[in-house]
Amino acid sequence: MTAKIRLHGVPLSGHTHKVELFLRLLGLEFEYVNAPRETWSSEAFTRLNPLRQIPVLEDGDLVLADSNAILVYLAKRYDAEGGWLPADAVGAAQVQRWLSISAGEIRFGPATARVIKLMGRPGDLEAAQAIARTLLGVMEQRLTAADWLATDRITLADIACYPYLACAPEGGVDLSPYPAVRAWLARVEAQPGVKPMPSAVAA
Ligand SMILES: N[C@@H](CCC(=O)N[C@@H](CS)C(=O)NCC(=O)O)C(=O)O
């Protein structure tokens, strides 16, 4: 019998959302453990992730933090066909490139702009929005020529990058100049079982 999977996070966290989205795409059963900010410094949560960040995944004895690490684990462990994380040198490298972009430009661009604008966190809103716009220009070029970010099919690259681009307007980043990016967001959302990134404004 497969061990029970538990996902610790909150719905408005894009880092958590990408893991939830991939669990659903893989058709895996899991328990969503709501872990609001006030709990992150507790002893119990610090044992799960000493960095005191969500998401954290538990799968049997395994406790794993970091959204991109969790995506890689789930693909290796549960995707028998290997399409989400290709094994060939170029495909694997292209997926890794976008995982790095999701932890770099996306984290410091649209994700940072959103927490500054929406949640009142300190930071340089204009600098974060500028990072977002530069990245969106690069993505627009790629997605004008291809349906998906890394290869000719949907991969972990698309899952990792989706949530904080879907909610980029909440950080004051206008997506209207990027029609290919908007079409790609819609393609991700059209996948079976996918729940769109929830709006913090409506929440
Ligand atoms: N590299 C981590 C970053 C996760 C992250 O930054 N999560 C945010 C919530 S979306 C967090 O826990 N931040 C800690 C804080 O704000 O104190 C990952 O990809 O999972």
Automatic annotation (TrEMBL):
Domain GST N-terminal, first and last residues per copy: 3-82
The GST C-terminal domain extends over: 88-203
Source organism superkingdom: Bacteria
A single GO molecular function, which one?
transferase activity
Q: Which SUPFAM superfamilies match?
A: GST C-terminal domain-like, Thioredoxin-like
Q: Which Pfam families match?
A: GST_C, GST_N_2
**What keywords are annotated for this sequence in UniProt?**
Transferase
What the entry lists under Gene3D superfamilies is as follows: 1.20.1050.10, Glutaredoxin
Indicate what this protein is called per its UniProt record: Glutathione S-transferase
- The organism named in the record is Phenylobacterium kunshanense
